[in-house]
Specification:
Length: 723
């Protein structure tokens, strides 16, 4: 009856006794149990009715017929309720049991104790919900409509005030809580229709202000000061901030106050957001002038009639020069710098702002003379930072508009802003800016000047900047021009050389310049043949590299790392190549037991475009192989392990480590052949099989161009460094 029938159906059908669904048994089971439990039919006539089960064998058995008898411990009840488009019995919740028999027409804020769970309190708030004991103890229950209402109880002969507020959880959305001092003091004040101030109910020394701070009609009472309750001032709130009011003393004097937020006043540890404070002279003098004036408007003081005020940055401030402001009829203030106006004496004056306190109308001279009237001639939207013009009187002088005023510029400012406008050329504005173009084959940088009258000036950029700027995106690992230590000669200063190191160019050291290659972080531990022989790149620069000495390191763009060795006049890979030739679903190599073997097509398709050997390395030809064998001998090149008894292990004197991996055969029976017998590698100038370093009883290397291979066989590859 309580939702278990769907689970029973799922279990029965899970037995797979038939392909079809189980017969409809639910109604029969329901009818059976309703009869056993003695439950009435549930329909629209008894929705909301509780039922006490009288079958003693039922887990829901209730000893007493009444659902509401005190002391009945059988609290489980069924209730008739809607279920989709029909009706059904289900287990009643506590609130359904406790409120089922209550009258339907009770007032919306009624609070009652539960009928079965008598320790619970229920409140009617559109629907019945849980409440608290205070809902029955106070004169009204705490519901949404009573939020903010206060009430009191006598506790130990003293009144304790409570306020209706938001509850702690969803089951009790609104609940009474003990009121704060301010809430208790303002109990009964109600909700005024305007900002006002009143003395507290309990603490007569405290003043409270009602204001609608957010303007959404949710006003509330907060702490105020004694001045808020003073006749003639009224409540100081956000709505009348900056208001200036006068209060007449008993002696006939007038004390002026302004409503402000810049004074810190604490009441019971809480800061009062807006308080009356003694008004300043300028606040009194400009009271009533308003804030919808044009920049530079002037007005005489309300109280001090001999003081002149000007409108600047949306505020009234004292005139910086009363005599000249009156003569011109406008204040010289921020926003009018450089503006020209005719005074009442018929002379043109320019607003000249030297600093924050020195702003005055003057007759044009110097830079002002050359730029007079430009403020009025500004294009729509005003002059933009970096605008360039030549002087009106001294046409050979360049002026630059920066930070709201004209200043001296340079000839380059004019050239860059006009001749290079399409390349984003401009005047020198921000220190450190550089040109993105070359003028007279050089780049320039914007610098601050400490002498002279030009505060910013374009100067020639350092040589390294001019020489390398266009190549910065090439300064990276594996770049074929600059990622391997190649030197760059300055096109500006032929005596300087640069190398790419760790993402940026730097000047080459004397050693790097002499050897013709930089030792940079991209090629640490790499060995190169320099002017004085083989050298290894280390953190201390180039260090001589000798055969039979520590191996070098070689990295390819696939992320593989190989040891390298110097043998005579050659620099060899000391490990087999391990780069895949796979393209789409095809490849010209086979990886078997950790060894990569290549066929003839790998040489044809990849060797010439550099995709096989790493950059700066190539496939050796038969001449290179013969040079190696003649210098070192086969035994010294063979690995010290891996060779069978008949051929014998080598001494590997140079670290070449020629291991007998044999070759991979794909004609007929596929697999590796010659393991432990042959160390065979490709040569670049053979059509099929290349130079072969073979393990023989005599330890002699041979070189073959076997016609029988026909591209079926695969061999390892060793690369040799370019000279």
């Amino acid at each position: 009856l309580n939702g278990g029938l769907p689970k029973i159906r799922a279990n029965v059908e899970g037995w797979k006794l038939a392909e079809s669904a189980a017969p409809a048994f639910e109604q029969h089971v329901t009818n059976f149990w309703m009869q056993e439990l003695g439950v009435d039919k549930c329909d629209s006539s008894n929705v909301g009715a509780l039922f006490a089960v009288k079958n003693k064998n039922s887990a829901y058995y209730a000893a007493n017929d009444s659902a509401y008898t005190d002391g009945d411990n059988s609290l489980v009840r069924l209730i008739c309720a809607t279920s989709g488009n029909s009706y059904a019995w289900h287990l009643a919740t506590d609130i359904e049991k406790d409120t089922a028999a209550l009258a339907k027409d009770l007032p919306a804020d009624t609070a009652v104790a539960g009928k079965i769970n008598t320790g619970f309190v229920y409140v009617k708030d559109s629907v019945w919900r849980r409440g608290t004991v205070l809902d029955t103890a106070l004169r009204a229950s705490c519901v949404a409509a009573n939020r903010g209402t206060t009430d009191s109880l006598i506790v130990k002969h003293e009144p304790v005030w409570y306020i209706c507020d938001v509850g702690d959880d969803a089951s009790v959305p609104f609940a009474w809580r003990e009121a704060t001092t301010a809430e208790a003091d303002t109990a009964g004040f109600g909700t005024p229709d305007r900002d006002t101030a009143r003395v507290g109910n309990v603490n007569k020394s405290l003043v409270y202000v009602f204001e609608d701070a957010d303007g959404n009609g949710n006003g509330k009472w907060r702490y105020g000061t004694e001045l808020d309750a003073l006749p003639g001032l009224g409540a100081c709130t956000k709505n009348n901030q900056s208001a200036v009011e006068g209060v007449t003393t008993t002696g006939g004097d007038t004390l002026w106050y302004t409503c402000a937020s810049d004074k810190i006043v604490l009441v019971n540890g809480e800061q009062v957001p807006y308080v009356w404070r003694e008004a300043q002279n300028i606040e009194v003098d400009t009271n009533g002038l308003g804030h919808s004036h044009a920049v530079g408007d002037i007005a005489w003081g309300n109280v001090n009639k001999n003081l002149l005020y000007v409108y600047e940055n949306n505020n009234w401030v004292a005139s910086y020069n009363k005599t000249m402001d009156v003569l011109v009829g406008k204040g010289c203030v921020d926003g009018l710098n450089g503006v020209v106006r005719r005074g009442s004496d018929g002379v043109n004056y320019t607003c000249y702002i030297r600093n924050e306190v020195d702003k005055n109308w003057v007759q044009p001279y110097g830079i002002m003379l050359d730029t007079v009237g430009w403020a009025q001639a500004a294009p729509v939207g005003g002059w933009k930072n970096g605008a360039v013009r030549n002087g009106k009187v001294n046409s050979e002088i360049t002026y630059v508009y920066q930070d709201g005023k004209w200043r001296y510029g340079s000839e380059l400012d004019s050239i860059f802003a006009k001749e290079y406008a399409s390349q984003r050329g401009s005047a020198c504005i921000n220190e450190g800016d550089t040109t993105g173009f070359r003028h007279e084959d050089r780049y320039y940088v914007c610098t601050r000047q400490t002498v002279g009258d030009t505060v910013r000036k374009w100067v020639t950029a350092p040589d390294i900047y001019s020489a390398t700027k266009d190549l910065r995106d090439r300064c990276k690992e594996f770049d074929q021009d600059y990622g391997y230590g190649d030197t760059l000669f300055s096109r500006v200063d032929p005596g300087k050389t640069y190398v790419c190191d760790n993402g940026s160019f730097r000047e080459a050291t004397y050693q790097e310049e002499s050897e013709g290659r930089g030792c940079v972080n991209y090629i640490y531990d790499h060995i190169y043949k320099l002017k004085n022989g083989f050298n290894r790149c280390t953190s201390n620069g180039w260090v001589a590299a000798y055969e039979k000495g520590p191996s070098g390191i070689l990295r390819d763009t696939d992320g593989n790392t190989y040891r390298t060795v110097v043998i005579g006049t050659q620099h060899w890979m000391a490990e087999n190549l391990n780069r895949s030739t796979k393209h789409g679903d095809y490849s010209e190599d086979i990886l078997k037991d950790g060894v990569r073997y290549y066929n003839v097509y790998a040489l044809k398709y990849y060797a010439n475009d550099g995709r096989l050997c790493p950059f700066g390395w190539h496939l050796p030809d038969t001449t290179a192989w013969r040079t190696l064998q003649k210098y070192a001998g086969s035994t010294a090149l063979k690995s010290t392990t891996g060779w069978n008894e008949y051929y014998g292990n080598g001494t590997d004197d140079y670290g070449f480590a020629a291991y007998p991996d044999g070759y991979y055969y794909t004609y007929g029976l596929k697999g590796v052949s010659g393991k432990g017998i042959y160390a065979e590698f490709w040569s670049s100038n053979t059509s099929r099989m290349g130079g072969l370093l073979m393990g023989t009883t005599s330890g002699i290397s041979t070189y073959d161009d076997d016609e029988s291979t026909r591209g079926y066989n695969y061999w390892p590859i060793r690369c040799i460094q370019d000279n």
